[in-house]
Amino acid sequence: xxxxxxxxxxxxxxxxxxxxxxxxxxxxxxxxxxxxxxxxxxxxxxxxxxxxxxxxxxxxxxxxxxxxxxxxxxxxxxxxxxxxxxxxxxxxxxxxxxxxxxxxxxxxxxxxxxxxxxxxxxxxxxxxxxxxxxxxxxxxxxxxxxxxxxxxxxxxxxxxxxxxxxxxxxxxxxxxxxxxxxxxxxxxxxxxxxxxxxxxxxxxxxxxxxxxxxxxxxxxxxxxxxxxxxxxxxxxxxxxxxxxxxxxxxxxxxxxxxxxxxxxxxxxxxxxxxxxxxxxxxxxxxxxxxxxxxxxxxxxxxxxxxxxxxxxxxxxxxxxxxxxxxxxxxxxxxxxxxxxxxxxxxxxxxxxxxx
Length: 355
What we know:
TIM Barrel, 11 strands, 41% helix
């Protein structure tokens, strides 16, 4: 195991986070049930799936929509992530997140999905520093002083010198406007998830901003050791685990064990996995009603990567729709105490989400 420096507790603005390995915003995944599971298994902070400013301004407070802004009492601190095109809409969306009770407001300038870029959202803003900084200014202006505003970025739109210059213009300008932290993903927007995340760029960014400004790192964090290595090798103040936390919320407790000098824990047993999957499903059912069966399918598929008979279990989760289907899969495949396995990093394929 690689040695690691003593980890300092993470603080974002006036919000004490604690252990500096947190769960990133994950489109289609990081709803309240997923965030609660992550918290119970060691995540000190998590961020909701990204929400569009236009949607937040228009959405009605109805039973069918309540999951979008639902926050469980045990989640705090929790961040709300916002994405959009127009500065005016951004500020209105930020106000809705504040009213919902989110402790930190996070601005998404990093999503690489093609349809998002085509609508001048997400990572597209890295090509237009003036608009990006106007969004930051308006958001910071409407969010109460005690609630931190943070920004999620990639290292640029592409690898040109022009993109690099614009990245640093936005980075420096955002801090000058009062943001409390910036998360940097080590790939460009055009890269999406192809090729390695450049951790050396994260080191450069942290050295550039200095010790008093918070930088979180992101990209290629699929194991507990990856998370600690990123902090050690780059000097960032913390890391946000994205795809590596889908179906593997145990990664946070594993990080904490390694950080205290303990050996890497064994992967959760099959029975322990089943208990968490049932817990996740029950919370989803309470939030979504009967439609949660199909909504949870993708999470079940991700959980299956820890099962020693991964391919068979995965094929069963692909077919689930109702609670009875879930119970059948869990009774058949998780009602024993076989040892689990760590997920294969090669299973993390590029996907169309803002992670």
